[in-house]
Amino acid sequence: MSRRTKLKKKRRKKLPTFIKLYLLLYPIFLFLTLETLNATNVFDVYTRIFTPYTFLSCTAILLVILMIFSISDNIFLSGFLTSIMLYIFYVVNFYRKEITGWVFVPQDFSFIKNLGNLASFTHLNYHKRIGLTFIVIFFLLSILFVISKRVHLKFVKRFKIFVTSLIIFWILFFTEFSKINILPLFSVDTRIKFTVNQIYEKYGVIMGFYVGYAQETKLKPPNYNQTTINKIAKEIQKYPHEKKKKITPNVIVIMSEAFTDPTLWSNIKFSAEPIPNFKKLREQSIYGNIITPVFGGATCNVEYEFNTCNSLYFFKSETIPYEQINTYFTNEKMETVPKIFKQNGYETIGLHTYSKEFFNREKIYPLLGFDKFITAEDMKNAPIKGNYISDKYLTDKLIYILRTKKNPLFLYAISMENHYPFQPKKFTEPDPINAQSNLLDAEQLASVNSYLHGINDADKQLKRITDYLQKYDEPTILIFFGDHLPILADSGFELYVDLKYISSDDNLKWNTENYYKMYTTPYLIWNNFDKKKINLGDISPYFLSNYLLNILGFEKPLRFQFMDMAYEKFHALKENLFIDSNGNKYSVPQDENITNMFWNLQYDSIWGEKYLN
After folding, report:
1. Closest-CA residue to 302 (of 150, 565, 461, 523)
2. How far apart are CA 421 and CA 122, in angstroms?
3. Global pTM value
4. Cα(598)–Cα(533) distance, rounded to whole angstroms?
5. Exposure of 372 by Cβ count < 10 A (0-12 exposed, 13-18 middle, 19+ buried)?
6. Treating both helix axes as pointing N-terminal to C-terminal, what angle do 541-552 and 558-569 enclose, rounded to 10 degrees?
7. Is residue 288 predicted with pLDDT exceeding 90?
8. What sign does the CA torsion over 366, 372, 376, 380 have?
9. What local confidence, expressed as pLDDT, does residue 546 receive?
10. DSSP code, position 185
11. Which of 144-148, 248-252, 461-465 has the lowest mean pLDDT?
């Protein structure tokens, strides 16, 4: 044996204590550095050093490093790959929360196929925290590189480490035994429903993401069984449902992108009324506010609630049903609003001035019961305004469909012109309305002006379609509402905080009034044959569509009849906001009996045994 080989073996046997200590502490240094991208206050990170969540997160990091090292016999490579993967993940989460106000969750991986579309929506600003975190990680990796030449093991030992690490990792994070018996010892419970921002704030990104992954998707009511459903069915049948004479007017629903009333915002003035026609029509309509389940995006969740009469409140947080077809659309016989219209002799059409592939709409709309789905792919040479097909073209299409239809029409239209981003001078024409506020800088005001341009265009097209319908020779109902509030100046909630409209850009600190303000958009129900002014007030999308079915006097399935019972008790339900029938706002449901009935019927319809049918 050569002297060099002997020295090599000797070095392998005697690894200095400081190297062992650094290798053991590296996952902790890495985790704490990365968590500065997640914490609202950087100094809060270091108060969590001795929490059980930190221990679990660092254990996960260490096990991954050990598994990669076992394969490569290169401790620097294993540390580098683990660190870079986690850094990218944390940066994605940072920008997701920065722009939308919500963290990155496992369901977001279903969006990978839509990256091209998402890139067109997104404008990222550089943050010092991103760069400083990278510098610290570079420093940690530099030390690891220096000591890596002294860290080598024989294949047999590395194989043992790999197998041991893999088994521990699998048992700890991927077994029911651990979920029930081990993780709760560290105050981690994957069996309860939670708000994702709350769990990330408490557990950190790594364990927060894991809990989001591990939580059961099909949240089952604890008392779900045939006896429970039969009891609910009897209560529905006993309820005195109001009987109305059946009518079959055309029904047009326009979900207008990011449409809201900016005059409600604090400490800001406008050179002209942004939505004058909407407010004028409100004087001869049923009107109020939609309590939308989303802010700034995920428009399809509003569609889902309206067209299914299901509530996202009973799904795991941040769920997008459209992106998980095999989970949320397994029951082809599930009753929906479009299917009820079809049963009453209607032609059902979906219309959207964007790609059919976005949010899987081309697959979802037939499942919802639409006969036809018209999208941007069918709109060759359509005029672009801002970044997207104009609302004027959408109105042209609506009028064309009304002129050429053969049967009563139910049409659900989704606009796109006023979609995020609202960069300064988004439109080639001068902005028709200008905002003024001493609390906003020039860039923020320019973003608001671009937004005002878009909703003012939407408002003009609302007048155009109602003017047309006023002369149209068939009775027609028009429902018009906004899907969510806009993300302005690429800053999530920040601009609204600057205006002092809400109290904090951290929604974990919001009260019910803040949630109400940020998840409320206006709606109206107008018709060309029996105008009346009724303030219906606040309402969730699923109650709005049920209200429509009641106006028409349609025969409804039992699950939809239940909505009448529920509406007598409460008018809106979403995460962190419950509005009872008297308009009182709470952070949690105040009538557990009626919400539990709702949950049971929804579960039965989507995943259960279909006892109600």
Report:
1. 523
2. 7
3. 0.83
4. 30
5. middle
6. 110
7. yes
8. positive
9. 96
10. G
11. 144-148
